[in-house]
From TrEMBL:
GO terms for cellular component: cytosol. This is Inosine/uridine-preferring nucleoside hydrolase domain-containing protein. Transmembrane segments: none annotated. It comes from the Bacteria. InterPro entries: I/U_nuclsd_hydro_CS, Inosine/uridine_hydrolase_dom, IUNH, Ribo_hydro-like. One of its GO terms (biological process) is purine nucleoside catabolic process. Keywords: Glycosidase, Hydrolase. Residues 4-313 form the Inosine/uridine-preferring nucleoside hydrolase domain. Pfam families: IU_nuc_hydro. Signal peptide: none annotated. GO terms for molecular function: purine nucleosidase activity; uridine nucleosidase activity.
Length: 325
């Protein structure tokens, strides 16, 4: 079994990612960290606890993480609506404050996620994969506090950024836009990093027919996933319709599937990547030097430019429908 730590800002697609990880027999989820992102930390932590309890996985600790980005809220006018409360038009909402599950009766683990990450990684044998699918605040803070953890991280498979796609500003993807300094720190860490950007998650968009099939499977996880996909589809129709109007991306779940089977991402190319932290119109934009314009720059990440939609759909159904009773 592969040891993994999830770092989430639960929301809807995070909820599916958590269920995939917890139900996959190949993964040993040793802990889940919450972070400010889709909503404030109180919501993302509660939502994470709800999903964990729903699947009867209360033995997996949930660690409450950073309340705000590292520095991006310190400059007046640079960041508004943080903690994020959703789009102005309710019809564009793909998350909501709470996932549609009963309130959690379990509690977060004592302490904070950053300290737990440092302690857990430093005590490890270098065999833990990090799967951050929200803003990278917790990971960057841990790297700043104890840089030696970089050598203890087996790999990082993260969801964030976009090569040719954006979703919160004309140039930036949401996770990196929330905390661009954190993303820049992680990209400069020297870790083995695979980036699952919007280009890949849009290529792997799940159809309404897939949702119907998941619902027919009748497991707790597959029915909840069908509910989430249909909810997200309604939001995306108004906010960011896909080329195929009957599909919707499930971003964070693709990162978990990429840990399980890297072939779900294709093509994947090594590139030099950076993040704009300048505070201007491109603030938070991920910059992937696909054409090697910076001749002396050394690749520091691998980025997925596409994904196998059929394989992703198959993995969702096999894991959530087969193991999600």
């Amino acid at each position: 079994m592969m040891k993994v730590i999830l770092d989430v800002d639960t929301g809807t697609d995070d909820a599916i990612a958590i269920m995939l990880a917890l139900l996959s027999p190949e993964l040993d989820v040793i802990g889940i960290c919450s972070v400010n992102g889709n909503r404030g930390i109180e919501f993302t932590t509660e939502n994470t606890l709800r999903v964990v309890e729903y699947l009867g996985a209360a033995q997996v600790p949930v660690h409450r993480g950073c309340v705000l980005p590292m520095v991006s809220t310190l400059s007046p006018g640079r960041r508004i609506n943080i903690p994020y409360t959703g789009p102005e038009d309710p019809e564009d909402n793909v998350h909501g404050d709470y996932v549609d599950l009963p309130p959690a009766t379990i509690k977060p683990a004592p302490g904070n996620a950053v300290s737990w990450l440092i302690d857990t990684l430093m005590e490890s044998e270098g065999d833990i994969t990090l799967v951050p699918v929200g803003p990278l605040t917790n990971i960057a803070m841990a790297l700043r506090a104890e840089p030696a953890i970089a050598e203890k991280i087996k790999q990082i498979v993260l969801m964030g950024g976009g090569c040719r796609e954006a979703n919160i500003t004309p140039s930036a993807e949401f996770n990196f836009w929330i905390d661009p300094e954190a993303a820049k720190i992680v990209f400069g860490s020297g870790c083995d990093i695979t980036v699952v950007p919007l280009d890949a998650t849009h290529a792997a968009a799940i159809s309404i027919e897939d949702a119907k099939e998941l619902r027919r499977m009748g497991t707790k996880a597959s029915v909840m996933t069908a509910d989430i996909i249909e909810h997200r589809w309604n939001g995306y129709k108004n906010w960011q319709p896909m080329d195929d109007i009957n599909t919707v991306p499930v971003h964070d779940a693709l990162a978990v599937c990429a840990v399980l089977n890297p072939q779900v991402l294709s093509p994947v190319v090594p590139v030099h990547a950076d993040i704009d932290i300048g505070g201007g119109a491109s603030d938070g934009q991920s910059i992937f030097d696909l054409d090697r314009r910076i001749k002396r720059a050394v690749p520091n990440v691998k980025v997925a430019l596409g994904a196998d939609r059929a394989l992703f759909s198959k993995m969702l159904k096999e894991i959530l429908g087969g193991n999600g009773s």
